[in-house]
Amino acid sequence: MKEDFIHFLWRFRLLDPGPMHTTQGETVQILSPGSWNKHSGPDFSAARVRIGETLWVGNVEMHLKSSDWYRHNHQHDEAYHNIILHVVMEHDCEIEDSMGNPIPVLEISSCFDPALASKYIKIMESRSWIPCAAFIDQTQPVILMNWLSRLQIERLERKSEEILEFFHYFNQSWEQTFYYFLARNFGFKVNASPFGLLAQKTPYLILGKHKNDLTQLEALLMGQAGMLEETFSDAYPNLLKREYIFLRKKYQLSPMEKSLWKTSKLRPPNFPTLRLAQFARLIHQSSGLFSRLVECASVDEIYLLFDLQCSPYWDTHYTFDKPSGSRIKKLGHDAIDNIIINTLVPMKFVYGNHSLKPEQKDQAFAMLSTLDAEDNAVIRNWKKLGITPANAAESQALLELKKFYCTPKKCLNCAVGLNLIRNG
Hints:
The protein is of the alpha+beta class. Helix content is 48%, strand content 11%. It has helices at 3-11, 68-71, 114-125, 141-169, 174-186, 192-201, 204-208, 214-224, 235-251, 272-285, 289-295, 299-305, 333-354, 358-370, 377-384, 392-406, 415-422, and strands at residues 20-21, 27-32, 35-36, 44-51, 54-65, 83-90, 105-107, 317-319, 322-323. A hairpin with a 7-residue loop joins strand 3 and strand 4. Helix 8 (214-224) packs across helix 9. The protein is elongated. The two termini are 17 Å apart.
């Protein structure tokens, strides 16, 4: 059992309503559980508790055992100097604050319905794909839908934090910030990190000076990616190499190590050389990438923006000096959806929030609701449990639920888990 279970009982007033007593024999009446603190410090603040004849308002701390108070060194922490009640599952020693004053202790091991603990333990000990896999079909649809709606917002808020960190790192430039996250997304899962490094080593401002010349854009990106360091047979990579040598000297650039890029097990359409060529084309045909994004109010407008056709060399190549069958290389529908979901939508959301433009946030949610649900291993497992997302907004929420609640077994912070245990 974890302390979370005690928090759960306290928050939702699931302790027996009958008379309870401190370990010193004084009656305890809980008038208000107070505010749950998810950060450092006492577990609950502004609680209202009557102990004996005295009404106390203040902080409440909780542990599995009374001795955990000393194990966590709370007696030396000023944040715990004003505890009005110590709630424990097992009282194994008396406790005192830093001034040597005894702290009232409420032992609750016999103060709640055992069925709650039984259901909680079953879920916590489960080794299924998600802890509540055996019970989730008992969840009322309205509870699940409301929780997924909340998780959609939570996921975008969490992504917003990272975006804002880079926004400040890039001197509050939305263009550079968007360029960085878009580049990272162009690497998709396998090459996200090297693409992100490329964006940091090759500022958007430099690319913007050459946006009207596709050859120079490709030279900058390929050269900075370390793709032009070898000797080539084809004329085109040699042209890019000459351009890059000049531009590298002009801007005092330093290339990445080519070895950072991964090609093992990648299908040719996902080779980094081709993704770099597509990225160069996007910059070439889009004046002010971030401004264009802000102007896009629908998914269809974004599809047009990402209708990218690489330079002719790539019609017959996936990488330098290795001819392939003739084929126009464009971003696939799924790849564009991935970029919309993981970069464009979060950027519109955080920009709308930061700039007080609610229409941008509304557009972000509308785009997610318009797109088809994602198809990956996590979503397929949810479907096996009878939960099928209707759109990308719901599939994003399910990804959030799995990663940040189910996997770490934070079931008592989850609306589904709470409902299953309370109605066990």
